[in-house]
Amino acid sequence: MKAAGLYKHLPIDQKESLIDQETDIPAPGERDLLVKMKAVSVNPVDTKLRSKGEEEENLKILGWDAAGIVEKTGAAVTGFKPGDEVYYSGSVSRQGTNSEYHLVDERIAAEKPKNLSFEEAAAMPLTSLTAWEGLFERLGISECPEDNDGKAILLIGAAGGVGSIALQLAKRAGLKVVGTASREETEQWARKNGADDIITHYEPFKKQLEEIGVKNLDYIFCLNSTDQHWEAMIEAIAPQGKICSIVETKEPQDISLLQQKSVTFVMEFMFTKALFGTEDMESQGEILRKMAHLFEKGELHSTLTETIRPFNAESLKKAHQKLESGKTIGKIVVSGFGE
Q: Residue ranges of the Enoyl reductase (ER) domain (predicted)?
C-alpha cells in the first residue's frame, strides 16, 4: 500500500520531512478494523511529532483523523462489518492514518455521519473528542441547557480546529460563549460557530469581559498557549471556577496562583484513553456516535475549510505548512486516495 511518513524528524521545508513509500497492508488484531482510507485531516499533534524525535528505524506514519470503509475485521470484533463507513481518531501509540489502509481498535471508532462526506467527516474526530472530553468530562459541564443558565465560558483560540467544534457544543449546552480571535476572518468564523461575543487574546481578559457584561466567568477552555495566558486566565476566572487546557507548558507555571480562588485546573489529551487502555476507552466510540447523531440532525456542522488532493507526501507537506503558519481556520483535509 502507499503511505506517507518519515525516517527523520525535520522542518517541513526539508525534502525528507515527509516521503512517499510502499509498505505492507497490516493484518488486523482481534479488536481491530482494517480501514481503507478515503480522507484524513491534519492536527497540531501531527506537526509536533513530525518535527521532534530521534531518527526512526522503520517508516513512521503520522496522522490520526480518518474516514474510510471497513475492509476486514479482527476475530473478536462485534460492532462493525466489512463495508461499514467509519470515522475515528486513532491511537498515538500506533501507526497513523496517512496510508491507504489503517488499523484501529473498534472501541474508538464509530459509523460515519450519513449526511457528511468522507472529507467532512475526516475533519471531525480528534477535535470533537477533544472538545467533548474537555467540556463535559474535564470541566464537568452539564449537557443540559437548563443547568447552565447564567453560566459563561471563555474559549481561547476559538477559530482553530478544536475551538470551532467546542463553540458549537458549548452553545448547544446553553452557556454564554465568549471566544478569542485576533483577525476579522477568525472573528466571523467564531461567531458563525456559536460565539456570542469576541475578545482579543492580546489584551487582559478580565477588563474585556467586564466591558461585554461578563462579570462571572465559570469556565475557561484554553486551546492556545497556556504559558502566555496563565495569569490572565486566573485573573479572569470566577472563584471556584474551572480551567481546562489542551496545550502543554514550555515553562514552569506558578500553580499557587490558583489557590486563593480555589480554581480547578485540568489538562485534556484526547489520546489518553487509547494510549493507556483505560477502562472507559470505549467511551470515545460512544462520543463519536453521539456526535454523528447530532451532525445528522443538523445540530452540529463540520468545520472543514479546505481539502487538498491527491493523497501523497507533497499534499501533506502543504497541509503541515498551512497548519504551522498559525493562521488556519477550521480544519484541513487531505483526500484523493488512488488519484
A: 17-334
| Sequence-separated (6 or more) residues with CB below 8 Å from residue 82 | 70, 71, 72, 73
Indicate the pairing of strand 237-245 with strand 264-267. Answer: parallel
Please list the residues that pair with 265 across neighbouring strands. 243
- Give one DSSP letter per residue of 203-236, joined into a string: S-HHHHHHHTT---EEEEEE-S-HHHHHHHHHHH
- Dihedral angle sign, alpha carbons of residues 312, 314, 320, 323: negative
Model pTM score? 0.95
Domains, the chain, in order of start with CATH, read 2-124+278-335 (3.90.180.10), 128-267 (3.40.50.720)
Cα 27 vs. chain centroid, distance in angstroms? Answer: 27
For residue range 279-332, what is the model confidence (pLDDT) as tens digits?
Answer: 999 999 999 999 999 999 999 999 999 999 999 999 999 999 999 998 889 999
CA atoms within 13 A on the CB side of 163: 32
Give Cβ neighbours of residue 67 (< 8 Å, ≥ 6 apart): 37, 38, 39, 40, 85, 86, 87, 112, 118, 119, 121, 122
